[in-house]
Every structure is written in C-alpha cells, then in structure tokens.
Amino acid sequence: MRFNSVGFALSVGMALVVVLIGFTLLSAAGLAGFSSQSFASETSRPIAVDTLAAQPQDSLAVPASAEEVAAIAAGDALFKTNCAQCHAVNEVIVGPALAGISKRRPVSWLLPWIKNSSKVVASGDEYAVAIYNKYSKQQMPSFALSDTEIKSILAWVAVEEANGAVTAAVAFR
Prior knowledge:
Blueprint: H1 5-28, H2 36-42, H3 49-53, H4 66-82, H5 101-104, H6 107-115, H7 117-122, H8 126-134, H9 147-172
InterPro entries: Cyt_c-like_dom, Cyt_c-like_dom_sf
Pfam family, one: Cytochrom_C
Domain Cytochrome c: 70-161
C-alpha cells in the first residue's frame, strides 16, 4: 500500500483550518480564548482613558504599557460583541458616533449610561434626554459590563479615534 503524502498533507491542513475557524468563532463569542473577565481580575491599575484620548493627533496612539495594550484588545472584542451593531467610532449608525465621547461626557457619567441608559434618561439628565430624543427615542439596551470592561471599550475608542485622525491627515496630504 502506497502512502499518499500530498493527500495526507491536505487532510491535515484542512483539519487545522477547521480548528482555527472554530476557535475564532468560539473566541468571538467569548466562549474560548482571552476573556475580558480574566483580564479584569489580573489588572489592579485602572485604565487611563483620559491619557489615551489626550494623546497628540499627529502621531499614532501608542499605549504606554502591556496592561493598556491588553485593555485595548479587550475593549476591541467587547465593542465588537456589544456595541458595533449600533455604533461606530466615526460615523452614525443607529446610535451616535463615539469619536470624542470622552470629551463630551466624563467617564463617571458614561459608566451608568452604558450600564443602563433608561435609568439615566428616567432620572431627567438633560444630556441623556437630548440623546434619547435625537435618535428617535431609540433606547440603548442595558449592559451587564463591569466598570473595567467599559473603560476598556472607551480606551479602544480613544485609540481608534486617534488612529483615524492620523489616517485622515496622511490621506489629506
């Protein structure tokens, strides 16, 4: 019996592709791989959202530490899972564009808003009511995210905003 090495290599290659696709899908769904919860338990230092947002717009936003890089990666995954259906950084989809969000509202306001916007609107907060009315009284769903997870999302938005500004400036030249 002859051994067909090409057929074997193709079979092994296809098996690896299937495993990688499966792991990617499970990871995107939060069922395997890096978890933002594990990140939150390993990190004791809060994420410097304001520092990232205040970086100069003429250079790419480079996080200062490995912890911030991990937080931004977690924010990216959390954004794609929870926010991307209705928001983008630089364009209005269902809800407002998130570029400049840390300049429009402080993090102390954003945390309860993201967790339960209905409650903030019901409290009579002027800004919350204005957003609610501006977007056709479309209610943002409540999210069971920790403060650390929300700050990770905000850090990712700040980096994307800074990188988008650099990309636009380079394209304009």
